[in-house]
Amino acid sequence: MAPTRKPAAPTYAQLFGDGSGTSYSGPSSSDAVPDSQTSQRVSSSPPLPPQMPPPLPPAAAPQPVPEGAVHPDLRVPSYAPFARYTVEDLLAQPGREGLDVLDPDRPRGTYWFGANNRVSRSVSATIKGYYNEAYPNWSKTANHVKITWFKYFAQKWHWSLGITERVKAEFVAKAKIRLCNTGFDWKDKWEINRYEGKPTELTKDVWDSLIAYWEHPSSIKKTNLCSASRRTKDKDGHLPMLHRTGQEPHA
C-alpha cells in the first residue's frame, strides 16, 4: 500500500493575496487620489486677507458760522414762532391783500404810528400775545423775544419792503412804552387785588415771576423813583403825560 502524500503548504500569495492569484502591482485606479483632490489639498491653506485701504484722515471740525453771516431775524431759538423766516419773508407771502397797510406818507386808507391809536393798540396786543416769561421792561427782555414780537406784528400789518427798517424803528420805540405801561397796569392789579389780580393772558408761572420781580428791593427802589418823577411838575405846573394802555390818544 502506497504511502499517503502530504498536501503542499499554501503559498504566500494564496495566504495574503487578493484572491486573483496575481501579485500586487501598486494601487489600483480606484485607490489613486485624483489630481483635482491633490490640488485641493495643496491649496487648502487659508487665503491671504484682502489689502485694506489706508484709514481716512480725521474730518475737519466744522467751523462756526460767523455771526454776520446769519440774518438778524434768524438769530432766535428753533422753537420760537417764525424761527425760519425773516420779516422780508413774511411780507412776501401770498394772501396779505386784506391786511391794513402802514405808510408814513399816509395816503388814504393807510395807517402810521402816532397818527391814530389803532397801531399802538396792535403793538400792545402783539406783546401780550407772546408773553411767555416775565418781561417787566425792555432792557430785561431777551433779544429773540423782541425779534419775534416784530415778526408777529408783520403778520398783522403790511408795508413795502423798502421801509422795513423805518417800521421796525417805530415799532421798537412804541413797544418800549407799551411794554412798560402794560407792566404798570398789571402791577396795579396785583397791588389792588393781590394774587387774584392775575390777567387772563398770563400763565401762573409768569405771574409768579412778575410778582417776585416787583417784590425785589431793587425793583421797589426803582418804582419809587419813577413814582416821584411822575409827580414832578414842569415849569408850567403840569404833571407829565402818562401813556397807559387804556388811553386812546398819545400812544
Give structural notes:
This protein is mostly helical. The protein has a domain at 81-231. The chain contains eight helices and three strands. The protein has helices at residues 12-16, 35-42, 87-91, 117-129, 143-156, 164-193, 204-214, 217-230, and strands spanning 100-102, 110-111, 157-158. Strands 2-1-3 form a three-stranded parallel sheet. Helix 4 (117-129) crosses helix 5 (143-156). Mean pLDDT is 79; it is low at 38-43 and 242-251. Residues 46-65 have a biased composition (Pro residues). Residues 1-72, 231-251 are annotated as: Disordered. Residues 21-30 have a biased composition (Low complexity).
Short descriptors:
251 residues, disordered C terminus, 8 helices, mainly alpha, 3 strands, three-stranded parallel sheet
Strand and helix map with partners:
Elements: H1 12-16, H2 35-42, H3 87-91, E1 100-102, E2 110-111, H4 117-129, H5 143-156, E3 157-158, H6 164-193, H7 204-214, H8 217-230
Parallel strand pairs: 1-2, 1-3
Helix pairs in contact: 4-5, 4-6
What is this structure, in a nutshell?
It contains 8 helices and 3 strands; from the N terminus they run αααββααβααα.
Question: What fraction of the residues are assigned to beta strands by DSSP?
Answer: under 5%
Alpha-carbon Rg, integer: 48 Å
Shape: elongated
Mean pLDDT comes to 79
- What proportion of the residues is helical, as a percent range? 25-40%
> What profile does the largest beta sheet have?
3 strands, parallel
Structural class: mainly alpha
Q: What letter string, H or E per element, gives the SSE order?
A: HHHEEHHEHHH
Question: Could you list the spans in which at least 5 consecutive residues all have pLDDT below 50?
Answer: 38-43, 242-251
Distance between the termini: 166 Å
Strand runs, count: 3
Distinct helical segment count:
8
Quaternary state of the chains: single chain
